[in-house]
Amino acid sequence: MPYVFPRAFALGGRILNRLTCYQIRDQAPRLAAAPGDRSWMDATAKRGAYRCIPLTIANAMGWELLSPARVTAEWNGGGELGDITITIDDPAWGGDKLATSHFGYGILTFSTGYLFRTDLGIGVWARGTPNRPKDGIAPLDGIIETDWLPFTFTMNWQFTRPGRVTFERDEPFCFLTLLAYRALEEVQPEIVPIGSDSQLSAQHQAWRTARLGFIDRLAKNEAETVRQGWQKFYVRGDGNPSGTAPSATHTSKVKLAEPIRRESSASAGPNSVVTGITAQLPEDASQP
Fold this sequence. Notes:
By secondary structure, the chain is of the alpha+beta class. 15% of the residues lie in helices and 31% in strands. The chain contains five helices and 21 strands. The protein has helices spanning 39-42, 53-59, 198-219, 223-228, 233-236; strands at 4-5, 9-11, 14-16, 18-23, 30-33, 63-66, 71-75, 84-88, 99-100, 107-111, 114-118, 122-127, 137-140, 142-144, 154-159, 163-167, 172-180, 259-260, 272-275, 277-279, 285-286. The strands form six sheets. Strands 11-4-19-20-18 form a five-stranded mixed beta sheet, with no helix packed on it. A five-stranded antiparallel beta sheet has the order 5-6-17-12-14, with no helix packed on it. It is globular and about 60 Å long. The termini are close together.
């Protein structure tokens, strides 16, 4: 039976059910639910990279801000603001509307075009799109207290070496996901011998034995194992060799809601991503 999530998600005593994106200018970069695919994953043999469910879930666990114009930036290695040269192919996005050199030291700064607000205790984690490396420049992560903040933030990338990089039109320059930013303070990590939990230890040993046996048979080119290709314990959430029941919360695919536009946040429901826009979170979500 599929697990049905409630309208609001409790995280460390916080409620996660709203992302309101107040558009602060007449035009703003497009906000879209992040896709689960990647071009480099498509190029792997038989699209084998998609067998890694944690990878594909991470790919889609947020929303992306897409560049409305082609941005080319070149850094000469210096620490001054003028040491980055920026060219934007659409004059409508010139000046400080999209990309600037604001901090120096090889840091390229993007304006989001929005002021974000979330529920009490929930913040926005702004970062580069997961599992989408970009040569020559790296995203700088930031966790922002958007439950109270009355001003905007920027997305920043740092050159890894002198040179030129390009963000194409519709390429994501910022990935947004939500988290209860004070919840981790309540977590006490514990290091425990696995033998102290006999049931978990038996489950792990059953998996390990099945895994090593499968790898051995694959190396020997045993026909049935080669035909199977890979074990699907994680993908299915069942079939674990220990015989344990699958998790009710297991999912193998995530697709977040696309933002919807409203004229005011007052008209938004409690579960929403609004973009002055709201992105509407579903009233409930189930995994088929």
